[in-house]
Write a structure and sequence with these properties.
The complex is a heterodimer of chains A (112) and B (275).
Chain A: H1 2-13, E1 27-34, E2 37-39, E3 42-45, E4 51-57, E5 63-67, E6 72-76, E7 80-86, E8 92-98, E9 106-111
Chain B: H1 2-25, H2 32-52, H3 54-63, H4 65-97, H5 106-140, H6 146-172, H7 176-204, H8 227-236, H9 244-266
Helix pairs in contact in B: 1-5, 1-6, 1-7, 2-5, 3-4, 4-5, 4-7, 4-9, 7-8, 7-9
The chains are: A mainly beta (112), B mainly alpha (275).
């Protein structure tokens, strides 16, 4: 059993397994979905900080917020709002879209 | 119609591939079809209920209810896959020795099939609830006719199911000698992949630090949303831009199940009752 014990020790040494304090978001950003479009279509957020993104869907139909660059996806039912945490992000542009209305629901998060 | 088909296909694919792997891994188990279709039916029922309660679930815990629900569903699936693989590593070798790959004893086979059915239900539940919400939106928003939406849905589900069947057909052709190692390796990776997704939801909910966003970026080489990337995403948990926490969960579950399998192999095997 020497090898498994060593492996276990290795797992525990991975940073994520040491108890790390989860800091509250440093910044909050708001996004609106109206007529299957994001408002604003370009949203600025601070780079290198955890951002609490509040997305309010004013349409009566559900939408799925999705971004490959941000590695996020979340269904937002009609007439409701959702919270998505992103970052800390390196400075740059991170496109996102609404999967259920991909033709019109497009936007980009700009971290700077 | 095509729009609905594409989205339904995308949502169906993941569940279909998972069912394909599990169907192959349990080939020959008594009442397998009943267990698997029971899992699918339970999953669909749950998906409709989940979609109906989406708004209420979303509001739970300050707007992160959806992530908690997804992480919970994935957690159950990971536990069941781990159990299946550890069980198989104990009994699989013995069954192979006795050249009885296609006839396990009914009692222990049933416990294993129950765990497999739960995984199937969880996979259908997760992907299905999003599909139900999407279709509801299409019809409620009267963007298309009901008939065209239904046709698109059928096409999407059909294409997804075809991918699952193709994977299954490929798997059952693997020679018996390699069969156990091949299916248990794939289920091991599937469990690790689900653990990685679970971590993504917990990070998205702000409950865990991301550790690194992303840990690497291979999106120029192989984007996750490309056809190959999407299949690898389901089968082995490929991500073009994973967070550090995802990779940590992935590795931890991979190692933990491997250790469990090795431990189970060392246990003395009790003599099998003659059947």
């Amino acid at each position: 059993m020497r090898i498994p014990a060593l492996t276990l020790l290795l797992i525990l040494s991975i940073p994520g397994f040491a108890p790390a304090p989860v800091s509250a978001a440093d910044h909050e950003a708001r996004l609106l979905i109206r007529d299957h479009r994001f408002e604003p279509a370009e949203l600025k957020v601070p780079a290198n900080a955890k951002v609490r993104l509040v997305v309010r869907n004013e349409d009566t139909t559900p939408e799925e917020f999705e971004s490959h660059e941000l590695n996020r996806e979340k269904v937002i039912p009609g007439k409701s709002q959702a919270v998505i945490f992103v970052g800390p992000l390196a400075p740059g542009r991170y496109p996102f879209f609404g999967e259920f209305h991909e033709a019109t629901a497009r936007g980009v998060l700009v971290a700077e | 119609m095509l729009g609905a088909a594409v989205i339904v296909f995308r949502e169906t694919l993941e569940a279909a591939l998972i069912i394909g792997i599990l169907a192959a891994a349990t080939a020959g188990t008594p009442h397998r079809a009943k267990w698997l279709s029971g899992g699918v039916a339970a999953g669909i029922l749950g998906a409709v209920m989940l979609a109906l309660g989406a708004e209420q679930i979303g509001e739970v815990a300050d707007g992160i209810g959806q992530e908690l629900m997804n992480a919970g569903i994935l957690g159950i699936a990971v536990a069941m896959l781990a159990w299946h693989n550890i069980w198989m590593s104990r009994h699989g070798a013995q069954l192979a020795r006795e050249a009885k790959q296609l006839g396990r004893d009914v009692k222990s086979g049933a416990t294993d099939m129950a765990s497999v059915a739960v995984v199937v239900a969880m996979a259908v539940l997760r992907e299905g609830s999003e599909t139900v919400l999407f279709l509801y939106g299409l019809i409620a928003g009267s963007e298309t006719t009901v008939a065209s939406t239904l046709a698109g849905t059928a096409l999407g589900i059909g294409a997804g199911a075809f991918a699952g069947v193709a994977l299954y057909a490929g798997f059952v052709r693997i020679p018996a000698r390699w069969f156990f190692s091949a299916t248990s390796a794939l289920i091991l990776l599937l469990a690790a992949a689900m653990a990685g997704q679970m971590a993504r939801f917990l990070v998205q909910a702000g409950l865990l630090p991301s550790l690194a966003t992303p840990l690497w970026d291979s999106s120029a080489l192989l984007p996750t949303q490309s056809p190959v990337g999407a299949v690898l995403h389901v089968l082995v948990g490929y991500e073009a831009t994973p967070s550090g926490m995802q990779v940590t969960f992935y590795s931890a579950v991979l190692v933990a199940i491997l250790l469990g399998m090795r431990w189970a192999q060392r246990l003395p095997v009790s003599p099998r009752p003659s059947s």
